[in-house]
Structures are given as C-alpha cells and as structure tokens.
Amino acid sequence: MKVALFVPCIVQDFQPQVAQATARILARAGVSVHYPKGQTCCGQLQYKSGNWKSARAVARHFMEVFQDCEAVVAPSGSCVNMVRKYYPELFRDEALWMDRALELGKRVFELTEFLVGVAKVEDLGARWRARAVYHDSCQVYRALGIHKEPRALLSRVKDLELVEMEQADVCCGFGGSFSLQFPAVSEAMVADKVAHILATGAELLISAEISCLMNIGGYLLKQGHRVQAVHIAEVLAHGGE
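Above: the chain sequence. Below: its structure as tokens.
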C-alpha cells in the first residue's frame, strides 16, 4: 500500500521529530510512504474560530493535494477528525465538494488507527525501558473512538511497563483556544491530570496528540517534575532499528 504522510502544523513547527518517527514506523510496517508537496494546514484553527470562508479555502487545497492518495496518515487525531467529520459540514451547501470530502474522509487515518486497523501490525520491534502511562486525548478517543489501538501497540514495546492512571480519558485542559480563553480553568484541569500521572509513579507520559503533550509536559516541567512527555510515534520508532 502507498501511504501519504500528512504532517500537522503543530508537529512541523514544534515537534518535527514526531513526523520523522511516523515515517519510520510506516516504513517498518511495510507500507510505501511519500510526502505530497504543497500540503498545508487542515483548516481546523479557522473552522473552530468561526472563519468558515478561510477554512473552506484551506480544505479545498487539502483535498486537491491528497485526492489521489490511497491512504493518508497523520500523527494527530485532531486533524484527522477535522477532515473526516468537519469537512463535510463545511461543504454542506456545495454537493460536489461535500462528496469529495466524504470520499477523502474514508481514506484519512490517525497513526495508531491505521497501524492496527488497516496495516494489521502491532509489533514494530520497538524497545523502551520505562514505566509509562498513556493519556487519551479528547480528539483521539472521544472524537474518533480510538482507545484499544495505542494500548495494543504499546503492549508490544519491549521493556515498557504500561500502567493506567485514573481518568485517563479526561481532558488535559488544552482544547485549542480554550486554554487561552479560560486559562484558570485550563490550568486547574492540567493540574488534576498531572496529579493522576504522578500517582502512578510513571517516568514516561505517552499520548497520540502533540497538543496534549505540550500542555501536560509544559506543566510537568514548570512544576519541576521529571516525567518525560513523548508522542506514541517516538516510542514505537525507538530501538527498533
């Protein structure tokens, strides 16, 4: 299978090593990976800010870039959810574009969803010695329903002890612009999340969403805790060469 890698803005600008790890994992899973030129933002920021005119322009460009790809994979549930669920909403009054959005949405996958559900691969030969805890992001778990897939993949990582925290599926308080509009509430939420993480004794925090990791990881660092926050792609790509 030939897979197109979609690199979200936040990954490209803040954590580019996640995109590199994703490409290595997909290659290790036996698929042919390519990076379509001209790809940009998926338009989520414009959509959630209420600027649908700008979001439609970005969405049309996204669909043009990826229209011929057999499958599109991204290390972000948030962006996948934007394409799969909100592109059709953006074009509800434009039948042609709505049909294109619905068709493309069937071929766009979050990384762990693709590995387990499409590529049928769980053991990628990774190794990471640590006690780890997994955080379910709102977009990956509640929006896309992906819960078992990341745990199945992490259970195959050699020397990784995966433990569960209380309220693993509760929001970390980031929520895009939510953290800017309601900073006090956001900070209280991430403080609760960190308390649950620390209670497990984990040395490693893993998630499938960079925005959550930046939010929780930043708070951990600010409070002087030594828990390392990493994207699941980095774990699955680690030590398997």
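The beta strands are 2-5, 32-34, 71-74, 108-110, 127-135, 158-163, 204-207, 228-231.
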